Amino acid sequence: MFPRIFSKFITSFTKKPTSRIMAPLLHEVDTPTKEATFGMACFWAPDCLFGATPGVIRTKVGYTGGSKGTPSYHNLSDHTEAIHIEYDPKEIDYSTLLKLFWENHNPSARMKLQYTSMIWYHDNEQKELAESTLKEQENKHKLPIVTKIAPASTFYDAEDYHQKYRLQGHPWLCEAIGMKSGAKLKNSHLAARLNGYVIGCGGVNQFNAEVGKLGLDEKTADYVRKLVIKNEGNGLTC
């Protein structure tokens, strides 16, 4: 009897601990999405804001609203800097996105066309909601609202170095998640999330709740977590 018990004790003591099974890095999310497009005076900050917003699947920055084709950052013509969002309507609605739009830039600031405040709607429901919230904002601001509402038109992707700009400022992190290319960063759900987290968007509690789902290992998660804690509450800047 004793040898059998002793044998079980030795087996239990020497058994190697099971390692935590990591989920794959969550670059792709296969779910039906809707689109939203905004102009908010610049595009780096909105890319961070919406990228870290629950329910947003993908983001990219670019130029839209103009009549001339193939705009670029140094030859924008009559286009405006814009953020293009793909979101899961089961997780977040357009009204919430509009609320974030109004609260995170100054819609009464008179800027040149490149940085002007714009809402480009993708269907009649978005048009009606945008017009309704515009009227609400006109009653809240002392200065006239300059925001324009227009139908969505061709969206031209900005240059690769503009995509997930804040995330690209952390080369080690980009390499850790296998995202060295700006072109790939446009379509990665994980990149959208981290682009917001590295400047504190979303907050540390939200980040901690997402770590397992995003597939980050402990070293990478700790790197991002320190940035979230350091930058949370500092506000958005372009």
Automatic annotation (TrEMBL):
Gene Ontology molecular functions: peptide-methionine (S)-S-oxide reductase activity
SUPFAM superfamilies: Peptide methionine sulfoxide reductase (SSF55068)
InterPro entries with a match to the protein in the record: Met_Sox_Rdtase_MsrA_dom, Met_Sox_Rdtase_MsrA_sf, MsrA_helical, MsrA_MetSO_reductase
Coiled coil spans: none
Domain Selenoprotein methionine sulfoxide reductase A helical: 184-226
This protein's GO CC annotations: cytoplasm
Domain Peptide methionine sulphoxide reductase MsrA: 35-168
Keyword terms of this UniProt record: Oxidoreductase
GO BP, sorted A to Z: cellular response to oxidative stress
Top-rank taxon, per record: Eukaryota
EC assignment: 1.8.4.11
Family: Belongs to the MsrA Met sulfoxide reductase family.
Protein name stated in the entry: peptide-methionine (S)-S-oxide reductase
Organism annotation: Bemisia tabaci (Sweetpotato whitefly)
Organism lineage string: Eukaryota, Metazoa, Ecdysozoa, Arthropoda, Hexapoda
